[in-house]
Amino acid sequence: MGSKGTKGSKRPRFDVPQVDAFTRTYWDAAADGRLLLRRCGACGRAHHYPREFCPHCWSEDVTWEPASGRATLYTWSVVHRNDLPPFGERTPYVAAVVDLAEGPRMMTEIVECGGSGLR
């Protein structure tokens, strides 16, 4: 994540990723509302965050694949205060860790569901 300010902003942004040639595919899919994972052709395991090699077996035979959208909630917390811009303007929000059906564990924000409905 970068801390570069945006044009005309006075405070640094901590929510803007640094997009490069490798991660462009990932961020373009995210902009379309799709989550991509990397899957290893050698060991068959999926991983997240995107890397150019498999963190399980170190193979470079990895490809992009869409996530199913299914996950199990591992843990969550309602964030009532955050001093990093622009997150403080969005409180309260639900920060969570989920286990994706494909295997990887990742952080996410739970939307359209109040914290009282999470189990």
Describe the overall structure:
Residues 27-62 form the ChsH2 rubredoxin-like zinc ribbon domain. InterPro entries: ChsH2_C (IPR002878), ChsH2_Znr (IPR022002), NA-bd_OB-fold (IPR012340), Thioester_dehydratase-like (IPR052513). It holds the Pfam family zf-ChsH2. By secondary structure, this protein is mainly beta. It has one helix spanning 24-31; strands at 36-40, 46-47, 62-66, 71-79, 93-100, 105-110. The strands form two sheets. Strands 2-1-3 form a three-stranded antiparallel β-sheet. The two termini are 30 Å apart.
Primary descriptors:
Nucleic acid-binding protein; disordered N terminus; NA-bd_OB-fold; 7% helix; globular; mainly beta; 119 residues; ChsH2_C
Helix-strand pattern, N to C? HEEEEEE
- How many strands, which pairing sense, and closed or not: the largest β-sheet? 3 strands, antiparallel
- The coarse silhouette is globular
Low-confidence stretches: 1-6
Distance between the termini: 30 Å
Structural domain count: 1
Strand content: 25-35%
Q: Can you give the mean pLDDT?
A: 88
- By DSSP, the count of extended strands is 6
How many DSSP helices?
Answer: 1
Helix content percent band: under 10%
Physical arrangement of strands within the biggest beta sheet = 2-1-3
Q: Report the C-alpha radius of gyration, rounded.
A: 16 Å
